[in-house]
Amino acid sequence: MAQAPTSSGAINPDLAQLHTELVALVGELDAAVGRAKDATEVTALLNEIAEVNARVTNLGRQLFTQQTARITAGVATVMEQKQAALNAVKKIESVKSVVEAVGKFLAVVDKVIDIAKLVL
Amino acid sequence: MSNLGLTERGRGYRTRSGAAVTLALATLLVGCRTPVASSDLSAFGKAAAGISQQASTAFTESNKLARSVSAEHFIASGQVGLSESQFQLAVAPSDIAAWQVALTRLEEYSDALASLADDKRAPAMSDALLKVGKNLNNSAIGVSVSPLVGAGFASLGGAILAGVQDHEVRKILARTDPAVQQITSEMASAIGLSDAEGLRGTVKSNWTTSLNGVRADYPAAATNHDLAKQRALVDQYLAALDKRDAQLKTLADLRQSIVALGAAHAAAAAGKPASAQALLSIVVARAEETKRLYDAFTAK
Predict the structure, then answer these.
(1) C-alpha count within 13 angstroms, C-beta hemisphere, residue A111
(2) Are the C-beta atoms of residues B253 and B213 closer than 8 Å to each other?
(3) What pLDDT score does B243 carry?
(4) What are the tens digits of pLDDT across the range B14-55?
(5) How far is the first Cα of chain A from the last one, in angstroms, to the nearest whole number?
(6) Domain range for residue B168?
(7) Is the ipTM of this complex over 0.85?
(8) Which of A12, B163, B204, B242 is exposed most, by the fewest CB atoms within 10 A?
(9) Which of A63, A78, A93 sits opposite B179 (nearest CB)?
(10) Is residue B39 in some structural domain?
(11) Does the pTM of the predicted model rise above 0.95?
């Protein structure tokens, strides 16, 4: 069996971990809003959520790009095997067409022989 | 007249025996294992196309949300320069395009395999061989082929072709499987195993942030005991939570579809077409559910 194709860019596990931690931090800040004593606290927490979220989105997009690079690396193998399938179809079709051609050729030969018999 | 010894008269025992052998061989070739069905391979391509549609919708919605949230962040920042780069996206457009290409390639690959597994080709080969046999019988060169033997050889020819097709299909499925597993596992990982990671994590975080406006207004309404305003804000908040849950569910469904697609390919490569079919039906069901949810989500 063929090996999995090598990736063009491995995902950075530290960045993935940081992204997960930032998502969790947004969750914690969100929960803290429910415990706020006054509007000032609420506003401060909401501002923190917005700041952390900006980094979540930025980091998440970068991670997604790294993973997409690994997806693209696998696609090359799929394309090679698609071509292998098309080549196999061509070979099989040519075998079938030879048999069909022989059948047609024999029919023509018979006609020629029949005509030759009439002439002779 | 020359005779190649295939007439029933005089050599009846041998010809019947020969025909029985060819028919037995044909049965053996066809019956030794269930061939990979062309329809199963086509179903894989359709499932990949369905996932492509699911992913496109999910990414568009994720980006709309991220851009809307980053607009609020930009306004609050007080920056004076306005440019597109200040508005964030959850998924880069080049990555969306790469996913569409990857899924289209999977679709094309399965179409090529379905064509290779075409189950109409073997009977066509048998028919062609039968025609050759008939032509030999009727030929002026004096060959006589027993109908039983002719039918046996024609059947064997078709069975051999079917065997060759199936062998090639299985070989290609096995060669491609590691790449398909890599593609689908990376896609599933990018979407995220839970709402705490991957794109699902980013979307959840963006939804939390998108509710800042409602929550910023609430303390004043609560302090002033403005019950009507409080009620309106709470209703707005809860409605947004429903939308968030619906969007997160569609991402979870997308991930499930991708995992099922990879598992279906692995099952087909391992010669388990029934499992592959069952998994592909999950993909179709998920795609329909995603469409229903998004239709409901975007309905006015």
Answers:
(1) 5
(2) no
(3) 94
(4) 444 555 544 454 454 444 566 777 888 888 888 999 999 999
(5) 64
(6) 35-73+85-299
(7) no
(8) B242
(9) A78
(10) yes
(11) no
> How far apart (Å, rounded) are the C-alpha atoms in residues B208 and A106?
78
Residue B2 DSSP class: -
Where chain B has pLDDT below 70, the residues are 1-34, 135-145, 147-150, 274, 291, 293-294, 296-300
Q: Helix and strand tally (H, E) in chain B?
A: 9, 0
Alpha-carbon gap, residue B280 to B282, rounded angstroms: 5
Residue B1 lies inside a defined structural domain of this protein: no
Looking at residue A30, what is its pLDDT?
A: 96
Partner B, chain A 43-72, Cβ-Cβ below 8 Å: 43, 46-47, 49-54, 56-58, 60-61, 63-65, 67-68, 70-72
Inter-chain contact A23–B168, Cβ cutoff 8 Å? Answer: no
Counted domains in chain B? 1
Q: Is A8 on the interface with B (CB under 8 A)?
A: no
Is residue B3 assigned to a domain? no
3-state secondary structure A26-72: HHHHHHHHCCCCCHHHHHHHHHHHHHHHHHHHHHHHHHHHHHHHHHH
Average pLDDT, chain B: 82
Q: Per the domain annotation, does B212 fall within a domain?
A: yes
